[in-house]
Design goal:
The chain is mainly alpha-helical and 200 residues long. The protein has helices at 3-32, 38-65, 69-83, 86-118, 122-166, 168-185. It has one domain. The protein is 84% helix and 0% strand. Helix 2 runs antiparallel to helix 3. 8% of the residues are buried.
Length: 200
């Protein structure tokens, strides 16, 4: 590998622990603080993007150094899953849902206007309009549930990044594997049956 890329890899390796700390801060922010300030949310998203960038660079160097693609996907599949941009996916779905809710509100508003113009009795039109408004409010409530789900899913993916990059999984795997091997090795060994000499 080129000398420049070796330096990039060394610098990136040194940045990973700091990225994990920043990612833990982002997770704590997402869990416990609900700030509606867009600049703070933008800063959090930028920090998350920088952390993902550091992890992607690390994964690229791991791919270059791996023996084969089969080896890479077998050993680093969780890292690939951790850097997958689920937030873009959920943001797109959320925007589509908001568009549908807005179009539903427009339809409700249009229905109210038509009912108001065509109705002979203002009271019956008002009652129908309240029913339609209640239905649109119900749709908006379902949207907030989706936003909560997307938020907790993002937190889960960020936790997955922390787990994969901190090296906890391989340590746990070797720990439990060694425990299992100790249990199988410490079982009582039955002495082999001794063969009696044949009578002649």
């Amino acid at each position: 590998m080129n000398e420049f890329w070796e330096k990039v890899e060394k610098v990136n390796r040194k940045l990973i622990p700091y990225a994990i700390v920043v990612l833990l801060g982002v997770i704590i922010y997402e869990l416990f603080f609900h700030v509606e300030d867009h600049t703070i949310n933008l800063v959090v998203e930028i920090l998350d993007g920088i952390v993902i960038g550091i992890f992607v660079i690390d994964l690229i160097f791991l791919a270059i150094k791996s023996k084969s693609t089969k080896f890479f996907f077998r050993h680093y599949w969780l890292d690939l899953l951790a850097i997958f941009p689920f937030t873009l996916f959920f943001n797109t779905i959320n925007r589509i849902y908001r568009l549908l809710v807005v179009s539903e509100r427009l339809a409700v508003g249009q229905a109210l206007v038509h009912e108001g113009l065509e109705a002979r009795k203002g009271l019956s039109a008002f009652a129908r309009g309240e029913k339609l408004a209640a239905e649109s409010t119900k749709l908006v409530g379902e949207g907030t549930r989706f936003v909560r789900f997307a938020r907790f899913f993002r937190i889960g993916v960020r936790l997955l990044r922390v787990i994969t990059k901190s090296g906890i999984l391989p340590k746990l795997y070797t720990y439990f594997k060694s425990k299992h091997q100790k249990k199988t090795n410490t079982k009582k060994k039955v002495p082999p049956r001794q063969l009696k000499p044949k009578k002649k």
